[in-house]
From TrEMBL:
GFO/IDH/MocA-like oxidoreductase domain sequence ranges: 131-254
Protein name (record): Dehydrogenase
InterPro entries on file: Gfo/Idh/MocA-like_OxRdtase_N, Gfo/Idh/MocA_oxidoreduct, GFO_IDH_MocA-like_dom, NAD(P)-bd_dom_sf
Pfam families documented for this protein: GFO_IDH_MocA (PF01408), GFO_IDH_MocA_C3 (PF22725)
Domain Gfo/Idh/MocA-like oxidoreductase N-terminal: start-end pairs: 5-121
Length: 342
């Protein structure tokens, strides 16, 4: 099998995880990197032994002609870089949040479609093994038909030291973290017709909201609560665990802190340890996220090889991003938001 040659743009805080994961992906590797910050370019180039280093993404794509590009920059550069990849006819992965607004996101999807270029958003939380275990339990039919869900992420972990820009943006928790929780809600319970949101800021040292409570009406009639907080001080810090409750006509699923899953159905109750693997390069507590990075990157390569649309394609991610927009609009107006109007 020929190795697919990838090029990475953005050598910052999170890209290091992506670079570690690429080393383990069957059938692909990163052969060129780009960052406009020379120190970051040198650090990642030296750590992963990549000699082809560029300060300019266009120069890299023109010279390297990679089989795919992995964009790991922050949101402001996503549209120009995705459109650049489309112009060069290079399949593209783009980190979340895909865009700062729907107009940019739709333009990026349209540019890739027009160029015939596959596009995947690196929306990795649904690839976490505990979340996949919840989905498998639903799909098994053990709890019957779901009618209620709760997707919850509550923490006081200091995310600002690693990602200082998170303290500076007008938008914070829904755009950065709630986006993952909303995507998990779609993944587990289906697409959404209406969303009601309440947001607030508790930490006075940051600019955006750090607490969000959202009520979702799903197309299939299920109701869910998606709640997230970076202002919740608990006895045992759960970062970065997403806790899940699903109630169904025949039973229930609980994904509790410590990666304990309980499935109650017609045949009784099963207690399962759904802890993520600690990959050799990973470190706690990030190992749950790090494992999902490897999973989504392998999924991308598997899809690229056979020409299949990825689970979190640009097209799919428009629906997750629309929930983010709906949360901000709904919190501002105090009214429920119809997703058809986003
Ligand atoms: P960062 O600021 O640490 O790194 C971004 C890097 O991109 C910087 O080194 C910057 O110089 C470079 N860059 C920006 N624009 C560029 C351009 N046009 N050309 C070349 N280089 C450019 O940011 P980060 O914390 O690594 O976050 C990057 C993205 O990853 C964000 O969108 C963030 O939301 C996302 N993220 C995702 C997860 C996840 O689990 N999926 C976790 C953390 C961060
Ligand atoms: O996953 C993320 O997108 C990260 C963090 C977990 C810190 O919110 O930004």
């Amino acid at each position: 099998m020929t190795e697919l040659r990838g090029a990475l743009i953005g050598c910052g805080f999170f890209a290091v995880n992506q670079m570690h994961a690429w080393r383990d992906i069957a059938g692909a590797g990163i052969t060129a990197i780009c960052d406009r910050d020379p120190a970051r370019l040198a650090a990642v180039g030296d750590q992963f032994g990549i000699a082809a280093r560029y300060a300019d993404a266009e120069a890299m794509l023109a010279a390297e002609k990679p089989d795919f590009v992995d964009i790991a920059t922050t949101v402001a550069s996503h549209r120009p870089l995705v459109e650049l990849a489309a112009r060069h006819r290079v399949p593209v992965i783009c980190q979340k949040p895909f865009a700062a607004g729907m107009a940019d996101a739709r333009a990026m999807v349209a540019a890739c479609e027009a160029a015939g270029v596959p596009l995947m958003v690196h929306e990795n939380f649904r690839w976490q093994s505990p979340i996949q275990a919840v989905r498998a339990a639903i799909d098994s039919g053990a709890i019957g038909t779901p009618f209620f869900g709760r997707i919850s992420f509550r923490s006081a972990y200091d995310v600002f030291s690693g990602q200082p820009y998170l303290a500076e943006g007008k938008r914070f928790i829904v755009e950065d973290l709630g986006i993952h929780s909303l995507d998990i809600a779609r993944f587990l319970l289906g697409d959404v017709t209406r969303l009601t949101a309440r947001l607030r800021r508790v930490n006075p040292a940051i600019r955006g909201e750090d607490v969000a409570t959202m009520l979702l009406d799903h197309e299939n009639g299920t109701t869910s609560i998606v709640d997230c907080s970076y202002a919740t001080k608990l006895a045992v810090e759960p970062f970065p665990e997403t806790l899940v409750e699903i109630d169904g006509s025949e039973g229930s699923i609980r994904l509790a802190q410590g990666y304990h899953m309980t499935v109650t159905g017609r045949d009784g109750t099963r207690h399962l340890d759904v802890s993520p693997r600690l990959l050799p390069w990973a470190s706690r507590p990030w190992h749950n996220i790090q494992e999902s990075v490897a999973a989504i990157q392998q999924h991308w390569i598997d899809c690229l090889r056979v020409g299949r649309e990825s689970a979190t394609s640009g097209h799919d991610n428009l629906k997750t991003l629309a929930l983010v927009e709906a949360a901000y609009q709904g919190a501002a107006s105090g009214e429920p938001v119809d997703l058809a109007e986003i």
